[in-house]
Amino acid sequence: SPKLAVRGVGKRYRLNGGKTIDAVHDVSFDVMEGEICALLGPSGCGKSTVLRMVAGLEDPSSGAMFLDNAQIDGPHKSRGMVFQRYTSFDWMTVQKNVEYGMKINGVSKADRGAQADHFIQMIQLSKFKNAYPCQLSGGMQQRVAIARTLANGPSILLMDEPFGALDAETKWQMQELMISIVETSKVTVLIVTHDIEEAIFLADRIIFMSRHPGTVRENMVTEFKDG
Ligand code: ADP
Ligand code: ADP
């Protein structure tokens, strides 16, 4: 069975004045255990809305979603989210950011130090573990956010245009690092992007979302394995 199952999900927003907008309409797809799955489509087609619903940050207007066969209902640490900007805490060092993630995951204080090292090595910031995020480049800050989120022990990592604010060179480095992180941590990833090159480079499978009315075109689901 799939890790994540999205079944006939829709989202209708009510705007000021009573007009409604169907941001997402009848979307269904699966994400399998251990894969990097990209949700690809043009700006405004509803990708972020789908991801926020999977994260439990918003409720669907119709349909349902299941993680490990359990229906998604509200936010939970089993679904870690990384946004385009700023998910690291500026008032905590790199080390403390990662330890905070572990605290949420119930890791005892005594064990946090050693385990933090593992995550900090994974994002290649050992030399900067006592630095504050504001002292680091955008790419490094994003690595801290990824490590802190992984330290929560999520069952699936949700990423919303995570490298969209970075320059091209940093973006490539981050994409390569991301692949090695997934190999090390065996986490399942659902990444939202409008960047087809990013999707092809990163993803085992790409789910195309069309612009209107935001339906996933199942017939266009394409598999990419080993690049
Ligand atoms: P994407 O991530 O593909 O760019 P979004 O999910 O952000 O698309 O948005 C899909 C559509 O829903 C857009 O037309 C957007 O303006 C609209 N939308 C998103 N969030 C809201 C909201 N909170 N209220 C009203 N409309 C929204
Ligand atoms: P890098 O040094 O890795 O090339 P920068 O720090 O120059 O990245 O970031 C590029 C742009 O994106 C800048 O305008 C910066 O303000 C913005 N930016 C990058 N990361 C973040 C972040 N986490 N929060 C807010 N803005 C960011």
From TrEMBL:
Domain of life: Bacteria
Molecular function in Gene Ontology: ATP binding; ATP hydrolysis activity
Boundaries of every ABC transporter domain copy: 4-227
Keywords from the UniProt entry: ATP-binding, Nucleotide-binding, Transport
Family membership: Belongs to the ABC transporter superfamily.
Record protein name field: Nitrate ABC transporter ATP-binding protein
Source organism of this protein record: Methyloceanibacter marginalis
Whole sequence portion shown: 10 to 236 of 277
